[in-house]
Write a structure and sequence with these properties.
With about 140 residues, the protein is an all-alpha fold. It has one domain. It has four helices and no strands. Helix 1 packs antiparallel against helix 2, helix 2 packs antiparallel against helix 3 and helix 3 packs antiparallel against helix 4. About 30% of the residues are buried.
């Protein structure tokens, strides 16, 4: 498995563990009523599980499994995919943790923008690797 895929999958598993932990705390708090401030973890839980785990895992597997090029670097220029990794993680933290901490509105918005740019960067990397299975008639 390529190094970038390992980073994507490992980060996705870390987000899964954190997201499930926060979700468990929220459920426990709902039943027992530990502290009302625990509900501030809800945006972090949603962000970690939906984007940190799901999207990141999909990107890692896609980077690994998409067809390779016969000549030159197997996976082409990896820079946009690495940029997507960094931007996605920065966006998850800015959008999730920023909302939970009550930061100004522009912080989670900046996180969403980083996540959007990450999706575009990954698409720029993956687009040339997506091709038909059979060429011709």
């Amino acid at each position: 498995m390529p190094r970038l895929s390992c980073w994507f999958v490992r980060a996705a598993l870390a987000y899964l563990a954190l997201g499930f932990t926060f979700g468990g705390l929220l459920l426990f708090n709902k039943g027992v009523g530990l502290h009302p401030a625990l509900w501030r973890l809800l945006p972090v839980h949603v962000e970690f599980v939906l984007l940190g785990w799901t999207v990141q895992l999909a990107m890692g597997v896609a980077f690994w499994i998409l067809p390779r090029f016969p000549q030159g670097p197997e996976r082409g220029n990896e820079s946009p995919a690495w940029m997507a990794f960094g931007l996605l993680n920065a966006g998850v933290w800015l959008a999730g943790v920023g909302a939970a901490l009550g930061t100004p509105e522009w912080v989670p918005l900046l996180g969403r923008a980083a996540e959007g740019v990450a999706a575009v960067a990954f698409a720029v990397h993956a687009w040339p690797r997506v091709r038909p299975l059979f060429v011709g008639g």
